[in-house]
Amino acid sequence: MNAAQQAVGKTLICVVDANPHFQSDVVRALTSQYRVSTFAEQNAALEAIASQPPMAVVLDENVVPRGGLPLLREICCVPDLDRIPIICTATNDRSHFLADATAFGVRTTLVKPFRRSALLNAITKEINSKVERSWTRIEPVQRAALKRTAKVFTALSDLMADGLPIPYETLRHSCAPLVEAVSGGNYKEVLNGVREHHNYSYVHSLRVAMFLTLFGHAIGVRGDDLIVLATGGLVHDVGKMAVPQDVLNKPDRLTDHEMTIMRGHVTSTGSFLRNSPGMPRGALMIAEQHHEKLDGSGYPFGLKGKDVNELARMATIIDIFGALTDRRAYKAPMEPEQALHVMTQLGRQIDQNVLSMFRTVLLDSAKDLDL
User: Radius of gyration of the chain from Cα atoms?
Assistant: First the structure.
């Protein structure tokens, strides 16, 4: 994959620092997930930021000619640019620059030297906060669908880390607006609302929950059964929260060892959900069997034919479609028609009758969707 191909779909991050060694370190740290522009001088940086606003700015105290504060002031005083998340860096936690930046409203600061993971986490947090603040501008039901699912998804990570369960009623509450949005045909803004979100696991899980609900509603599923589809979709991959980020986000083919680690997420998901009070069987089947294949080649149980649950057959198709059409830092999303064609080539691995039904539902909904 060449540099131009790697840049497809990547978010732009601007790094402003007069230290060339720091610039190169940051570029190495970020280029697997972002496009990066670097500047040492204030005016050049401001001109570039204004002409092509980045998704976030990493701004150091060390900027030519007068330090980082004048540039921060200028960015904060320009309409629209003042909404760009800024992460400020310095070599000392008692730096006047960091104190001044905080006074200007900067929420995230880092003290050099810092780990690559700290920088990536800071950028992700800032971008996602900006995206989630934009949800206040959409309709109440769609806004609730996004806010509730994002909140519960964040909580899931902490609960799993602490070895605690999540009551099904909590999940049910979080997915109720999503089901309402789909039932009323008002779901486009929910999908659009996560287009720029950088928690890939959340985005993928929300999309799976959305498409499962859309599919179920189209074939006549209603009431609590529709909620089961939505919740099952939202939590189908929660075990991935325990998978190392370098494995989870690796753009290249996984090694055999890495594949074993990745596949372990299904078992982790199942264990977590089975210990969660009130979890319905349908949600468990979606989570535990969505990687099974009808020819027995799937995992973790190697189920075959009629032993694969009907809801899991739906979830398998939605999960594959979601993975192919998701936006990732290292790949552009596949067009829906192309994704459906690829899935037909899987033959007897998946339920082609269910795939045909999903294709019809998707095409009927195409005018409302912006995938």
Answer: 22
DSSP type of residue 60 = E
Residues facing residue 36 across a β-bridge: 13
Residue 359 Cα distances to 77, 130, 204, 241, 331, angstroms: 49, 34, 19, 30, 23
Q: How far apart are CA 149 and CA 152, in angstroms?
A: 5
What does the pLDDT look like over 103-114, one tens digit per residue? 999 999 999 999
Distance CA 197, CA 244 (A): 20
Q: What is the dihedral of CA 192, 223, 154, 107, to 10 degrees?
A: 50
Q: Which of 41, 108, 25, 31 is nearest to 13 (CA)?
A: 31
Q: For 225-271, how does the pLDDT look when each residue is reduced to its tens digit (9 = 90+)?
A: 999 999 999 999 999 998 988 888 787 899 999 999 999 999 999 99
Instruction: List the structure tokens of 312.
Output: 């899991």
Its pTM stands at 0.89
Task: Give φ, ψ of 159 to 5 degrees.
Answer: -65, -45
Strand order in the sheet with 86-90: 34-39, 11-16, 56-60, 86-90, 108-111
Q: What whole-number distance in Å separates Cα of residue 265 and Cα of residue 272? A: 10
Q: What CA–CA distance (Å, rounded) separates 85 from 57?
A: 6
